[in-house]
Amino acid sequence: MKLLRLLLVLLLPVTSFAQTIFTERLSNAALELTKQSVTYSSGYCIIPYPNGDVPANKGVCSDVVIRAYRKLGIDLQREVHEDMAANFKLYPKNWGLTAPDKNIDHRRVPNLMVFFTRHGKIRPVTQNAKDYLPGDIVCWNLGGGITHIGLVVNKKSADGTRYLIVHNIGGGQILADCLFDFKIIGHYTFEK
């Protein structure tokens, strides 16, 4: 028992350090996306599988998350599709589908929320900026049944009180101080 405790104490800093490296890389990947010109486009596209993506100059909010993770070698298209194929009943039926669709499922915020709940870590939804750290995924309700998603990055607001978000709400893949602009409905971390 003492040996187990000692091993846990010794390994905890390594795990924490590895997580810090991952979140730094994810944050940097999201920031890199803001350098690309992207037109907001939610149209359905048939894309390759796995590692498929809509045209690089098009995208929606979920594509920011998908592309940032892809830069780290994590294919959310494949991850979400495989989980939906095995657990379709657990995912929303908002679109009238009777089976998974590898072209679009990973691009839908409600599906990503289910996936991150199942395979990531659920973080608290609060109004405290200190609870939202680089590498975190945040989901919002924009009203009228419209959901939104973005990534917390390692750049701070002008007043230094909160981290900024990389997202696409219609103006392309941008860096913004928008954490509390909308009702937060999900807060996650995901590392594979």
Summed up:
The chain is α+β, with helices and mostly antiparallel strands and 192 residues long. The chain is built from 4 helices and 8 strands, in the order αββαααββββββ.
| Overall strand count | 8
The domain count comes to 1
Query: What class would the helix/strand composition place it in?
Result: alpha+beta
Uncertain parts: 6-15
CATH superfamily: endopeptidase domain like (from Nostoc punctiforme)
Query: What is the CATH C level class, in words?
Result: Alpha Beta
| SSE topology string | HEEHHHEEEEEE
Shape: globular
Biggest sheet layout: 6 strands, antiparallel
Helix content: 25-40%
CATH fold call: endopeptidase fold (from Nostoc punctiforme)
CATH architecture label: Alpha-Beta Complex
Give me the side-by-side strand order of the main sheet.
3-8-4-5-6-7
Q: Termini distance?
A: 29 Å
Mean pLDDT: 92
Portion in strands: 15-25%
Gyration radius, rounded: 17 Å
Put simply, the count of helices is 4
Describe the structure.
This protein has about 190 residues and is of the alpha+beta class. The protein has a single domain, classed as Alpha-Beta Complex (endopeptidase fold (from Nostoc punctiforme)). The chain is about 35% helix and about 20% strand. The chain has four helices and eight strands, in the order H-E-E-H-H-H-E-E-E-E-E-E. It has helices spanning about 1-35, 60-70, 75-85, 110-120, and strands at about 40, 60, 120, 135-145, 145-155, 165, 175, 185-190. The chain has a six-stranded antiparallel sheet with strand order 3-8-4-5-6-7. Helix 1 crosses helix 2 (about 60-70). The longest helix is centred in the first third of the chain and has 32 residues, at about 1-35. The radius of gyration is 17 Å and the shape is globular. The model is unreliable at about 5-15 (pLDDT under 50).
